[in-house]
Backbone:
């Protein structure tokens, strides 16, 4: 009988294979794919709502919203103007995997798509180990969390390309320190691109939307 570690390794290598072929397929269709990860409550769905609203007219966007139990987030994203929103209810599982995402992309007309946004399950641990075929992982953290999150979950910050700091409108109402969180994140990953914003007030959203649009254009012209 295989031991637990051997089984985990096998699952991950099968996931990597699936993710690799998914990435090839998305790249062949010049689709930018982002995998959005965070703790529960950091504002992934809120950020996606704002992002869709800003980029919907220029890009064809599909969303995959992973949730452990409900389709509430997917419904919110549909209301925000997401034309193609696919819920994945993981039924208790704490991460999305490449098989789940592939089962959705198989239903999509990839020629009619520019951007695929994947909202992962709120969890900073195992989603870092599961490649979903994305171009980049975007890790979201909010000012209501500890500014030591990057040090507590180094794997996630190491494997992410972008860190978005949300809820800057609440700065000063807790011990969260902007300089400290950035320093902590840089000590784990010196390449991280960083954005500070508030989905509630809209502050800082423009640079994020602009950056995302540029990434999509870059991928489209490849
Ligand atoms: Mg959500
Ligand atoms: Zn998990």
Residues:
């Amino acid at each position: 009988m295989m031991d637990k570690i051997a089984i985990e390794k096998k699952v991950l290598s099968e996931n990597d294979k699936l993710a690799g072929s998914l990435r090839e397929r998305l790249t062949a269709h010049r689709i930018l794919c982002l995998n959005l990860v965070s703790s529960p409550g950091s504002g992934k769905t809120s950020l996606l709502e704002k992002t869709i609203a800003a980029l919907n007219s220029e890009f064809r966007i599909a969303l995959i919203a992973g949730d452990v139990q409900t389709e509430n987030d997917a419904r919110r994203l549909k209301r925000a103007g997401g034309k193609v929103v696919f819920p994945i209810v993981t039924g208790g599982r704490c991460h999305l995997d490449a098989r789940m995402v592939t089962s959705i992309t198989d239903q999509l007309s990839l020629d009619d798509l520019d951007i695929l946004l994947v909202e992962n399950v709120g969890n900073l641990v195992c989603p870092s180990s599961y490649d979903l075929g994305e171009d980049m992982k975007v890790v979201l953290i909010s000012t209501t969390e500890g500014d030591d999150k990057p040090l507590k979950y180094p794997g996630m910050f190491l494997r992410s390309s972008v860190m978005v700091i949300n809820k800057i409108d609440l700065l000063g109402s807790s011990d969260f320190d902007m300089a400290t969180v950035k320093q902590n994140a840089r000590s784990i990953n010196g390449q991280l691109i960083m954005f500070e914003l508030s989905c509630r007030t809209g502050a800082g959203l423009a640079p994020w939307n602009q950056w995302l649009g540029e990434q999509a254009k870059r991928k489209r012209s490849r």
User: Anything to note?
Assistant: Residues 94-95, 126 surround zinc ion (ligand 2) (CB under 6 Å).
